[in-house]
Amino acid sequence: MIQSMTGFGKSLLQLPTKKITVEIKSLNSKTLDLNARIPGQYREKELYLRNLISNSLTRGKVDFSLYVEVSAEETTAVINPAVVRKYIEQLKAIVDGDETELLKMAVRMPDVLKTEREELNETEFASIEETVHFALEEINTFRTDEGLALENELKLRISNIETLLENIIAMDPDRIAGVRERLRKGVADLKENIDENRFEQELVYYIEKFDITEEKVRLDNHLTYFKETLNSQDSNGRKLAFISQEMGREINTIGSKSNFAPMQQLVVQMKDELEKVKEQLLNVL
């Protein structure tokens, strides 16, 4: 079963004095590209949280956000009275004014508010860690659901390529007969006497150059391998992408060897289907 790299997970934690929100978003990326937004009081746990996320989300451009809403009675920002009084004294020395107005001016000055560093509460962080796990479960469920839609799309495109390959196999004898007939006609137009045995030898050599038997077999094997990988337990977008590249090589070779307009039209359709496969694989984990 494959997974998409696109996903979203969110979980809330309500504590007595604060509300904590964890959000995780992911988009497609060749590797894990993790961007974390973590409040200062939990910064010492950033590496631990990054490892927690990377163990669950192996690939993708991931945005991790931890938001904290603190209640008013629990705020860590307090007014520094000594600084306020010093500002008022300095303002009085410059202008005469009502103390209330001077106070309004003073509280706008730098360093009036001081923030006391909040020590990390390990019990609280344990609850936050559990909340992160819930968000990771949600985003992985989202990725799995998206992966199911991708899987159905990929199976459709692979089935279309298989049908086109069957049509190519069916018309190949007519293509070879056409090549043989064109060569005989070309020789007949020259109105020259030829050695029939030598002509047959040259004809076989020429037709072998246009033989696509190996390409048909290899493409069929790649299609089977792709479906087996798609149905495996692990989501392996890189492996599927590699198989699709090998499929593309065989399709291109069939097109270059075909020398037969109806077959080349089928090859164009196969290339179109394969491009749609590659587009979808960009988002497969």
Q: What share of residues are in beta strands? A: 5-15%
Head-to-tail CA distance between termini = 10 Å
From the alpha-carbon coordinates, what is the Rg to the nearest angstrom?
35 Å
Q: What characteristic shape results from the CA principal axes?
A: elongated
Number of helices: 8
For the largest beta-sheet, the strand count, sense and barrel status come to: 4 strands, mixed
Order of helices and strands: EEEHEEHHEHHHHH
| Strands, count | 6
| Strand ordering within the main sheet | 1-2-4-3
Q: How much helicity do the residues have?
A: 55-70%
Oligomer: single chain
- What class would the helix/strand composition place it in? alpha+beta
Protein described:
By secondary structure, this protein is an alpha+beta fold. Helix content is 62%, strand content 14%. It contains eight helices and six strands; from the N terminus they run βββαββααβααααα. It has helices at 46-56, 81-94, 99-106, 122-190, 196-209, 213-230, 237-258, 261-281; strands at 7-14, 18-27, 32-37, 60-70, 77-79, 113-115. The protein has a four-stranded mixed sheet with strand order 1-2-4-3. It has a two-stranded antiparallel ribbon with strand order 5-6. Strand 1 (7-14) and strand 2 (18-27) form a beta hairpin. Helix 1 (46-56) packs across helix 4. The longest helix has 69 residues, at 122-190. It is elongated and about 125 Å long.
